[in-house]
Amino acid sequence: MTTPVPIRYMGTKRQLAQHVKRLAASAARKGPLADLFCGMGSVAAEHADGRHVITNDALAFTAVLARARFTGVLRGLAPSEVIEKLKPAFRAQARYLTAAYRAELATEAKVIDGTSAALLQHMGEVRHAANDSSFARRAAIARGKIDDAGGYQMACLYYAGGYYSQRQAIEIDAIRYSIAHTRGLKKYSDWLLAAWLSACSKVINSPGHTAQFLKPNSLAIASRIKSFWRRSVWEEFKLCLVDIEQVGKPAWRHENLVLVSDALTLLRGKRLAQAGVIYADPPYTKDQYSRFYHVYEALYEYSYPTVFGKGRSVAPEARFSTGFCLISQVEESFIQMFERVAALGAPLVLSYPTAGLLSDAGTSVETLAAGRMKIVKHESFAFDHSTMGGSKGKKTKLATENIYVCEPI
Ligand SMILES: C[S@@+](CC[C@H](N)C(=O)[O-])C[C@H]1O[C@@H](n2cnc3c(N)ncnc32)[C@H](O)[C@@H]1O
Questions:
Q1: What is the pTM assigned to this prediction?
Q2: Ligand 1 pocket residues where CB is under 6 Å
Q3: Which of 3.40.50.150, 3.90.180.10, 3.40.50.11540, 3.40.50.720 is the CATH number of 14-73+248-286+326-408?
Q4: DSSP 211
């Protein structure tokens, strides 16, 4: 089953999901499929109305997308009805922020109609929470005002003039405010927040991931930035409310579970004791996803974190990091994964490319599985990995993706 991917994502297994499903079916005992590194949930979506799923990821924003799609009773409102309900609060907050950021809006309007040199200069001079103490102070005050209009300006203080235009940042904050302050929509908050994040991802000025925003270093990029900055987040949000569909039937969704945890910690606990098969699609490069998707994580949390640098991101120590992305720890991370899955007595279906970080570390899946789990099947696929300008600096990279089916010994 193919449903739109809510956010463009590095390493998504959409093209491989049907093969993962087939191989998981061949291995599974009774019980749900637990996807340890679910990302955008392509493998869970493929299991609609089949085996139940437990999705897990270390990043919390992925979970709101998973809850909106893979859990929940039938929605009782159409997207157009939701929009009508949100409109008054959205408009009121947009008016409030338009007044608060009048000067910034006026400057930006001139820049968008001006030269690329003017845009470059503007983007270099924009004040935000990472480079200006008065903005950082305003962020600290806003953090304490989450019940009123002043508490809903995080995108304006953090991302305007970079990832988003000032006008878009106002819309982003106003939608978030309307979701929190419109009566009768609380039970739909996962759906609405998922659509909001998805809309933020459609208009973001970035190469796909959000480690940094694009700068107008050429005429082509300048015109791309201007055209992205002109797009309406509210209009995108309307489309995304339609796109964030519930997957499968209510009975299937009822039994699914969405978790946010480090995969190795999760394997150590009891929550996966009933899993029929474990699926693992760990990261395979040095790129920590928390760095590459920090904007969505921060927007979802909406807690006005302290941010630094050109990327306007939280400090590396404050972001989730995993040994699967560290050359010095990747081997030990795999060993722990094999040992803990084996201890659960469950089969493991593992996706990992031939040229992943493990091979850079001088080892392989086969070597590390030996003596811990038995590889009973191994299929390989030529696959176009989207790096989205990640560490290798190329858009796509031809890779051999492998799926291994491993059984406890
Ligand atoms: C290759 S992507 C998975 C893509 C996913 N299969 C899909 O189709 O969208 C790896 C995912 O693992 C998550 N991740 C990285 N380290 C993790 C860890 N130790 N525990 C849980 N999730 C982790 C990342 O946030 C990312 O979403």
A1: 0.95
A2: 9, 11-13, 37-40, 42-43, 57-59, 62, 262-263, 281, 283, 289, 322, 324
A3: 3.40.50.150
A4: S
